[in-house]
Design goal:
This protein is an alpha/beta fold. The chain has a single domain, classed as Aldolase class I (TIM Barrel). Helix content is about 40%, strand content about 15%. An eight-stranded parallel barrel has the order 1-4-5-6-7-8-9-10, surrounded by nine helices. The two termini are about 40 Å apart. The chain binds ligand PBG. The site of ligand PBG has 10 residues, from helix 6.
């Protein structure tokens, strides 16, 4: 009882399922999701990734099958990573016409024409040293030498039919360089989804097994961001907007929901993507396998939290199962 005969009771809005549903502020639908795929050379290949139960390295034909199933369950987009036949110091296989991502894009385009196809543009899966670019004499990523390669990779993905290219190396000027390369090559309709705000995170561990792209020495702290910083995230996001990015990304998601909110507020005009990364996936899978966490509500709560923080779209390895859960209810 607050005053006289007037009572203020927030619980009225939680009394029945119907009431809870009309006052809900945020929702999660299959249309919000992007499903990442790991493409390897060959045919009929489907190799489990041990640290990511339920996720596979697939040859282009198998990736196209996964893409079709994703589309059928209401997922509008996939994000492709490639594991090449051969690695070298310059990541040569990243921009050849019959490269693994290029073949993957073509196979998916043909099998599922209305699916949005996004490709990761980075050199770490293609270089023998595992770094995200060309190295200088000190073994650090040479920013401007790397830009030239990113331009070529992006154009070759566009040529194969990608709708968006997604540079993930945190190389200064990568969005402007790629935008101008695409335009010069006539791919004015191909968009850039920038990994604008990407942290040097421990949560990429399982991905580095999946994509076979762990650095052979050192780390990525001269280009990926310090987890301590959020003002810097706003700066990175604004720069990528100025350079012509069509969409922005914050990565990882779970430990960075404040960053998602800050970028959403600072650059309200652009669609914002949160990347629910490999470590965030594997943690839940591992705990669920032990019976220590109730997997389905835990996953839905995590993804809803990302939407509430301000993400429009979520890249997640959970996409197929989440889409199934959301449509069967
Ligand atoms: C780099 C890249 C990484 C991820 C996506 N793109 C790894 C890294 O920066 O080391 C991580 C994705 C994940 O953990 O799910 N090309």
């Amino acid at each position: 009882m607050n005053q006289e005969n007037r009572t203020i009771r927030p619980r009225r809005l939680r009394r029945t399922e119907g009431i809870r549903s009309i006052v809900r502020e945020t929702s999660l639908t299959p249309q919000d999701l992007i499903f990442p795929l790991f493409v390897v050379p060959g045919e009929g290949v489907r190799k489990p990734i041990v640290s990511m139960p339920g996720i596979f390295q697939c040859s282009p034909d198998e990736a196209a099958r996964d893409a079709m199933h994703a589309r059928e369950s209401g997922i509008p987009a996939v994000l492709l990573f490639g594991i090449p036949r051969r690695k070298d110091s310059e990541g040569t296989e990243s921009c050849v016409p019959d490269g693994v991502v290029q073949e993957g894009v073509r196979a998916i385009r043909q099998a599922v024409p209305d699916l949005v196809v996004i490709t990761d543009v980075c050199m770490c899966e293609y270089t023998d040293h595992g770094h995200c670019g060309i190295l200088d004499d000190n073994g650090t990523v040479d920013n401007d030498a790397t830009l030239e390669h990113l331009r070529r990779i992006a154009v070759s993905h566009a040529e194969a039919g990608a709708d968006f290219v997604a540079p993930s190396g945190m190389i200064d000027g990568m969005v402007a360089a790629i935008r101008s390369a695409l335009d010069l090559a006539g791919y004015t309709a191909t968009g850039v989804l920038s990994y604008a705000v990407k942290y040097a995170s421990a949560f990429y561990g399982p991905f580095r097994e999946a994509a076979e792209g762990a650095p052979k020495f050192g780390d990525r702290r001269t280009h990926q961001m310090n987890p301590a910083n959020v003002r810097e995230a706003v700066r990175e996001a604004r720069l990528d907007e100025q350079e012509g990015a069509d969409m922005l990304m914050v990565k990882p998601a779970l430990a960075y929901l404040d960053v998602v909110r800050a970028v959403r507020n600072a650059v309200p005009e652009l669609p914002l993507v949160a990347y629910n990364v490999s470590g965030e996936y594997s943690m839940v899978k591992a705990a669920a396998a032990q019976g220590w966490i109730d997997e389905k509500p835990a996953i839905l709560e995590m993804l809803l939290g990302m939407k509430r923080a301000g993400a429009d779209i979520i890249i997640t390895y959970f996409a197929p199962e989440v889409a199934r859960w959301l449509t069967e209810r």
